[in-house]
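Sample entry as discussed:
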Amino acid sequence: MSKPTVSDRLGPWSVILEPSQNINRQNCHRTVPMQVLSLAPSRTCTLSMCSALEILGYQNPYHFSSIFQNVLDCDIWIPALKAKFERNEKVGRETFDKVLGHCSAVTDAPCIVFWEELIDAYPEAKIVLVERDEEKWLRSCEGLTDGTFNPLLVYIFRYTDPFWLGKIIRTGLLWTGVFFGTNESQKAVMSNAREAYRRHYRGVREKVPKERILEYRLGSGWDPLCRFLEREAPEGVEFPHFNEAKTLELAFGALGQRALMHFLGNVGVVGVAALIGYAAVRYLV
């Protein structure tokens, strides 16, 4: 048996290794109906649910990993997240139809911090809510915030690679601020984590009528999801399951490597420009 490649081990996060599509969605609009809002926070098997929705035929289910496919999405997410985090303003359907107009389902951050706006914007969409054991989620969340506040990413590559990783990090820090009420530090975030988790589930449950929501239990397979969504369960296909902690760890490693390559490329361009400038001055003088 051949050894798994880096791409194999990254699973859906392998998009980190691919060039960005560079699609400017500022003038885009909705092309497919929004049908499913999976509103559980990050670290609740969002990657598995995203993959399951894709298998069931939903077009382009959105996940934070989708941003790596098209980093220009950050140009829409960043102002929307700043409006919510810094000014407590709500975001309207027009914004969602731009950045999510090609998607018939959403999962994960940054979408889930706009849970209330998305529910109002798409009243016809069905809601899926996956809840994980609180203590397990808190432990997993520590791993997520470990990567979010990695000093190398936040204080170096964020600025040496402003047009790719810089935008992604800003998006990550802003959604963290909205969900946890702070993005000051990992310690501050984890201090708020338990209450943020409870507040999120409480808010969704209070807003959504019971007939519109599926409380999905991890490990329950296709049946409850397919019954709720009125879709045929795929024959011979296991419900997706990714080791999200391990996959995310690999993803942060790949992220750092790509950012380093961008940094070296930028340094190379600056170095060549400096040499040309130096040679030109020498020649002219």
